[in-house]
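Kindly draft a sequence, keeping tokens residue-aligned:
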Amino acid sequence: SFCWEHSPEQKVEAAPEENTLCLICLDPVGDSKSYSTLVCPVCKGAWFHRGCIQSHAICHSYYTFFCPHCRSDYKFLMEMRTIGIRIPLSLPSWEENTPAAAENERHRRCDASQCLCPGDREQAEEEGPWELLLCSSCAAEGTHRRCSSLSRSRSTWECDSC
């Protein structure tokens, strides 16, 4: 695994035009390629936020993951895997009773090495010291603010795995 500064970068020589929107959430992606902004290597016109395409990958899984714009599958999938998008090797989440359906649920526990919460690792509040923050890159790990000494002003956190 790589930190955001040393992770593999896309080789595509493209930059989003002004007011380009993420094809998944429809929010602006900014005006430059970055760690959190990705482009389809095939059509070079489909831009995504890293978190949005990660959610798309978890929902679709390895067998049905493709670019939502040009529908390229293999080259798109290989590029996304190379730059760190986790694509589960399972059936899509819409298939009933599959492990992928369980993966689509929000992570609900504190994974800090020492959880300080007086309740337990699965207790969480909407805000305050026992608010559960999920990793901003993978959303597969979480921590209470107090367990990782995070200030109230901080709205994101990244796990050690990412």
